[in-house]
């Protein structure tokens, strides 16, 4: 059949593959202008515009008719060819889309993007589609329409290439994409995702130095030619390569969270077959397996993790895992809210895009899973309510839940498949001993083996502890191990009343009796420690021991399976072991020893947080804590990147430590934690958690706390409440903070409170009050050497003046603010000022200047991590482009802005921008420059810290 080629030189090939002469460039442009709308009518006016643009000759129509006539001859020369028809609507070239290479390219790319298409098939399709590109599209042709079309198609090619690289990456074919990505990155040197994808592929292929060289070239080129730095995604890839970590796509992260399999797993043949059967009959429907239920220590987690590893290849888009700690002896179960947020992190969702409430987070989580095949393991659930928000909602995903509860509610309401897990059979229990102790040793003492199995009640956890003791002493007869079990006594009181079919305290107490006094004390303290796990420095602080002694003691506990090192340098306990350890802590340790240990641990966390913040470019320094208490060992941190990693990894433990301080009435620790974590919470975008933290700090204040601390707590709580949308609460606390700052004659903090009040009033569209507070802040700062705060105040005054239509004085204030912000190095404040200047320029008719300000503001926001404000600036950038008559750029800015608004669950501005996109090209677009600047405008005043 006849083929039309546009992805290179414009060519017509007959059924025999022979090229047909098409004539001069203008005629080939006419053919291309028809082919892009193959099968649809194209008006004569449209064709003339595409071929000649603004330079339309007097004889354009006769020339067009002549070119059409010659094209008909070429079509006839090619053999049986599509008809070129003339009608009232213009011309129609009756060509099937799959005979035009660019249309065929789009069809195949769309097939690859369908949700049922797995990575391997997607890679094949995209590789095929990219193979039809022969060079620069529409090569040899010129004109405005050709340039726009060529640019648009080039973007489609880049997007397809990135998706192809991602698909190949997921299937392990890293090296196969390097050549294509290298060529594309050279063609498009400023398209940063291409460089990021190339760096990922080079690292995965073992060529990390070349990946780092790519970053250096990009960084130099951007600095020299555009005056900017690489964006956040390329920097993230660069940092991961420097750390030697694998790099996943931020937008399509493939989580692999399954824990390591339990060593020596054996048996459970019937249960594994049952899980296989459920998976086989699942089809394309989401399935929940809830009845992996049973008593504590029966091996639910071991079974599910073992099975999950067996079937992981059936879920190419990843495996999510969370230990919900539903029956944690500390009562610190993982909330659905926290679990969903952790899953969003694993799926590559930036923290700034995570919604505030659980329902919205769950909706975003399910949206990210849509079209993907992901296995979700929800371990140790308390009840159905803890699980429901974590269940996927789309075909292709499967959730497996383990619990001590039967979760009947999930079976009834969600159609979950129950699978009750019983004790090991005698044969399976003996096989477990054989796997761990050796078949010969077990076969030599069958009676002792039977007694060990009976004393451990065929409970896998108890058997694991008993075999650890036997494995540690290979010369001991198994009869001695059985005798020790026989002579032990005691019970786990929390698991009486039918939950356990036998008493396992004997196993734990026997293991405990084998510990030295130092090891036993560490074991008991671990049962009392807050948080899901613990690192070495924190553990040493808890014990009040040097790190080497702590490491030796915890290794002894690990050898007896009393703790697990689930990742290097971090330990955690199984629920039952932790319960027993907590009982021992309460029984064996003096109250003063327990209190001092927990204070040392809490102090260690707090001192490390403060040290981490001093490494970060933040406005507000952490509280002065003084020297650590004896035995308190803060974690040493050397770089900003190391500080951010530590804060991110330890956040659950830090919050648990603050809760412990609240419960025990350690009031100063509570507000010091809030003060120290506030900046980090701001960077993460966790606005509601931040409000809760400061509310706890306020409740912990006492009469002996100094007024400046009380002022800070009210100011920070007001600032946090404002950003969470609690404006009345914000004004109340900010008014109290202002009163305290005025009593102390503290001008800097008075100014900061006024800026925060301006933000609060600005977000409520009370602009005159916002301007009044901004002006007060500026007057207080006139004689103070606080350039960043003064820049924020000047910009706030200028911003609200502009919002009120006073553009002349607004420009004066904002232009005075800009050098102060740049001198102090605060890029988020500089971005605010640039955004304000762009707004002022746009509303005074200087749209080209507005575009320049807005584009630089977007760069600064992204570089400083203030992504939530990028959407607003892109929204305004689109208005400036539209006013300049540049609809392509306006569409690009608004498309990205709308996507960001929707990701941030800001419905009203998202709908406003979508409406603009629908209207793009109409005369109304240039008249709506005032639209949308009111209560919906969330970029009010100062995004910088310290307000």
In short:
Helix content is 60%, strand content 5%.
What quaternary form is this? single chain
Structure classification:
mainly alpha
Give the CATH level 1 class of the domain at 747-927.
Mainly Alpha
CATH third-tier fold name of the domain at 747-927: Serine Threonine Protein Phosphatase 5, Tetratricopeptide repeat
Share of residues in strands: 5-15%
Rg result:
33 Å
DSSP helix fraction: 55-70%
The counted number of beta strands is 11
Keywords: DNA-binding, Transcription, Transcription regulation, Two-component regulatory system
Biased composition (Acidic residues): 923-939
Family: Belongs to the AfsR/DnrI/RedD regulatory family.
GO molecular function, one term: DNA binding
Give an overview in words.
The chain is mostly helical and 947 residues long. Among the domains are: 3-100, Winged helix-like DNA-binding domain superfamily/Winged helix DNA-binding domain (Arc Repressor Mutant, subunit A), CATH 1.10.10.10; 120-243, Tetratricopeptide repeat domain (Serine Threonine Protein Phosphatase 5, Tetratricopeptide repeat, Alpha Horseshoe); 269-338 and 356-413, Rossmann fold (3-Layer(aba) Sandwich); 426-491 and 500-506, no CATH class; 747-927, Alpha Horseshoe (Serine Threonine Protein Phosphatase 5, Tetratricopeptide repeat), CATH 1.25.40. It is built from 41 helices and eleven strands. The strands form four sheets. A four-stranded parallel β-sheet has the order 5-8-7-6, with helices on both faces. Strands 9-11-10 form a three-stranded antiparallel β-sheet. Strand 10 and strand 11 (570-572) form a beta hairpin. It is flat and about 110 Å long.
